[in-house]
Task: structure prediction
Amino acid sequence: MTIDQSKLFTIPRGDVFPIYVYLRDANDAPITLVGKSIILIVKKKLNDPDETATILKTVSSHTNAALGQSLINLTPTDTEVTDSGLFQAEFQVVAGTDPTTFERAFFQFKQDVV
Result:
């Protein structure tokens, strides 16, 4: 599998890790998040059940919903992943019960060096 390095998040274990989200359309105009949530799902394989996700975060309060800006804050508990393999991540926007995937990426968790 070839990994697009621009879509690889290397996260120090046990650290806070902010992910800034700026949703834009093909014409670079903001996509509103008013009344919508963002869901981040991180698991070994995308076809694994969501209930087995290593990280499952829902954000409903956005930095600037009208301008498509949000922040997904991973906590030390979220990032304390001891498996050193690659994880697949999916970012979704949900309006009501209808999720739409807007990005896929890879996560890896590394021992924090002090």
